[in-house]
UniProtKB/TrEMBL annotation:
Protein name: Potassium transporter
Principal location listed in the UniProt entry: membrane
Gene Ontology MF: a single term: potassium ion transmembrane transporter activity
Origin superkingdom: Eukaryota
Subcellular location(s) of the protein: Cell membrane
Membrane topology: Multi-pass membrane protein
Keyword Cell membrane recorded: no
Family recorded in the similarity comment: Belongs to the HAK/KUP transporter (TC 2.A.72.3) family.
Domain K+ potassium transporter C-terminal span(s) in chain numbering: 248-483
Organism expressing this protein natively: Gossypium barbadense (Sea Island cotton)
PANTHER family membership: OSMOTIC STRESS POTASSIUM TRANSPORTER, POTASSIUM TRANSPORTER 8
Start and end residues of each K+ potassium transporter integral membrane domain: 1-235
């Protein structure tokens, strides 16, 4: 009944439940009901339990089966919890945690270490705290009947919204099954002080965590959207952005796939220098095992060509391995260079704010595209090279872009490639935004508690993005910014 669809197909669950699980449940409950109807009057006051109703000859085999069933049930609960937590995290309703995909073919087979340890600690706490199967049974009974009641309510919505049936049918379904389950639910509530309070307390705790995280994340995203830098503000600064452009490439990590993040304006208005090439890098995880190298990057331009501002969206599957910083820098630089070389209207995908994005593969996936070679390489004799003016005061190892002869590159694109190569040779700086979310002055007490304490605590103890763990610390620049929401 609690099998995860990530491990089994819908047909297998239907067949097993119809021909094995449901008949077994009916027979088991009929047997227990028959025993209770015959032995409900017990003068000795001996408590009638499950194993009392089992004949002595098969009591130990039933105990073994019960232990195996508990193992299967616990595994189902664990996989179901993993699936729910992953979906809540994807919807921004749960803090970011480490999710390990154990299968390259089935998306639903995952493992979450933190949740696994949390479930173990909760099981030990409940067992040690109660030390009584009756209290544990009361807690389990309320949890099960609550799940059934909630499922019935949601099923009535499915009948109307998904199956497009009449509202009367949904009301009849809800009234028929809901009334029966409401009786059991009220009976379970009578055992509230005898252990049934545990699932309600846990549900309240996790609901508060989910609400606080979702509320804080929503307010932070609204601040990012409302404070995006407009293209008019960028055009008013001019090609130099109103500051000194130093050599090198600046990679600004952002979660926005369009527009200029507020962290960029915060940076340029407080510092007097910035890199000659700026790349707004957005790393996205897509629900497929692998993204082919030929579709890894989406590259576009922000503003006019003279500004040297680019946007790059790097897409990774849940089984893709992030490359080290050297390979990633090489692929990123080659992708931008290939975008500059082959910028054509027919290869462009329009994004928001009239931005244009082009699908560009990595250097290893496109043998006909731009590649990087160090000095002394002779693997591309039939290709043209773009080199920078030799700098005698810097005798370090230099790199060059090797581009195909056809199609021919105009002078503007050649100059842009040369400048990109010079910036690549000078190195890349990874700029990460570190946001401090605070409630605005005049906010009510509840909002200040949720934002300043609850969300801040969850954010500081949640997992950082995967790409942040692979960035070399020597090339990282973290920019702090206060978000007043």
């Amino acid at each position: 009944m609690f099998a995860d669809l990530g491990h089994f197909s819908q047909l297998s669950i239907k067949v097993v439940f119809t021909f094995v699980v449901y008949p077994s449940l009916i027979l088991a409950y009929m047997g227990q009901a028959a025993y209770l109807s015959k032995h409900h009057i017990n003068e000795t006051g001996y408590r009638i339990g499950f194993y009392v109703s089992v004949p002595e000859k098969i009591r130990w085999p039933v105990l073994v089966i019960a232990i195996l069933a508990a193992v299967v049930g616990s595994q189902s609960i664990i996989t179901g919890t993993f699936s729910i937590i992953k979906q809540c995290s994807a919807w921004g309703c749960f803090p970011k945690i480490k999710i390990i995909h154990t299968s390259s073919k089935i998306h639903g087979q995952i493992y979450i270490p933190q949740i696994n340890w949390t479930l173990m600690l909760l099981c030990l706490a409940v067992t040690i705290g109660f030390r009584d199967t009756k209290r544990m049974g009361n807690a389990s009974g309320l949890a099960v009947i609550t799940v059934m009641l909630v499922t019935t309510c949601l099923m009535s919505l499915v009948i109307v919204l998904c199956w497009h049936k009449s509202v009367l049918l949904a009301v009849f379904f809800l009234f028929f099954f809901g009334s029966i389950e409401a009786l059991y639910f009220s009976a379970s509530l009578m055992k509230f002080l005898e252990g049934a309070w545990v699932p309600i307390a846990l549900a309240l705790i996790f609901s508060v965590i989910m609400y606080v995280w979702h509320y804080g994340t929503l307010k932070k995203y609204e601040f990012d959207v409302q404070n995006k830098v407009s293209i008019n503000w960028l055009l008013a600064l001019g090609p130099t952005l109103g500051i000194v452009r130093v050599r090198g490439i600046g990679l600004i990590h952002t979660e926005l796939v369009s527009g200029i993040p507020a962290i960029f304006s915060h940076f340029v208005t407080n510092l007097l220098a910035f890199h000659q090439v700026v790349v707004f890098l957005c790393i996205k995880s897509v629900p497929v095992p692998h993204v082919s190298p030929g579709e890894r990057f989406l590259v576009g331009r922000v503003g006019p060509k003279g500004y040297r501002l680019y946007r790059c969206i790097a897409r990774y599957g849940y089984r893709d391995i992030h490359k080290d910083d050297i390979e990633f820098e090489k692929d990123l630089a080659c992708s931008i260079a290939e975008f500059i070389r082959s910028e054509r209207p027919e290869h462009i995908t329009r994004m928001e704010n009239d931005e244009k994005m082009t699908v560009i593969g990595t250097s290893s996936s496109n043998s006909q595209g731009v590649s990087i070679c160090a000095d002394g390489g002779d693997d591309h004799e039939d290709s043209s090279e773009i080199v920078s003016a030799k700098s005698p005061e810097k005798p370090r190892k230099r790199v060059r872009f090797v581009v195909p002869e056809s199609p021919r590159i105009d002078n503007d694109a050649r100059e842009e490639l040369r400048e990109l190569m010079e910036a690549r040779e000078s190195g890349m700086a990874f700029i990460l935004g570190h946001s401090y979310v605070r409630a605005k002055k005049g906010s009510n007490l509840m909002k200040r508690i949720v934002i300043n304490y609850g969300y801040d605590f969850l954010r500081r103890n949640s997992r950082e993005p995967t790409y942040a763990l692979n960035i070399p610390h020597a090339s990282t620049l973290e920019v702090g910014m206060v978000y007043l929401v």
